[in-house]
């Protein structure tokens, strides 16, 4: 089938935010009396809080008790302390513009909250370009579950064969693969090529993908 649309991850893909997310989790867990290292959390970034919390502290959930309080506090800390310091990934806006000019339909496929999404799109300098999106409210489970990707496909009314996803973590790849969608990965999220195995192609960042656009899976629209 002809490529019709691209699902876009934001964190680590269009915004260099993965380290900030990891540090926010570390800070918040510590505030609640849990000693968690940066390395423990960093490898899980790309998942949502519903996945991260029970993996870090078995028995906790983001729906009740300490787990729920941690999830809420982490979001506040990220928005208030870390988000103002974030920068876009190299070439983020230019790549989005080029994909739109190429005739592709774009939708954000992220499990970020709507409030976080608004901030991240502004940081990426694409808030005026991307109007279609999914957020945490559109899925029961975050990546690596396929819910977010399936929600995006539903909003597009597209089949998996007509779309690709642009992401930066192994959880993007697993989530998309379970929904039958191929992934183009970028390294700017901090994961190495071994972790990104399964992607159709891997580039350094959006700017690198844009340089090689014609020869990339995105260039094969027709």
Automatic annotation (TrEMBL):
InterPro entries named in the record: HAD-like_hydrolase_sf, HAD-like_sf, HAD-SF_hydro_IA, HAD_2, HAD_sf, PGP-like_dom2
SUPFAM superfamilies, A to Z: HAD-like
GO molecular function: phosphoglycolate phosphatase activity
Gene Ontology cellular component annotations, sorted alphabetically: cytosol
UniProtKB keywords: Hydrolase
One example of a Gene Ontology biological process annotation: DNA repair
Protein name, as recorded: HAD family hydrolase
The species this protein was found in: Fischerella muscicola CCMEE 5323
Taxonomic lineage: Bacteria, Bacillati, Cyanobacteriota, Cyanophyceae, Nostocales
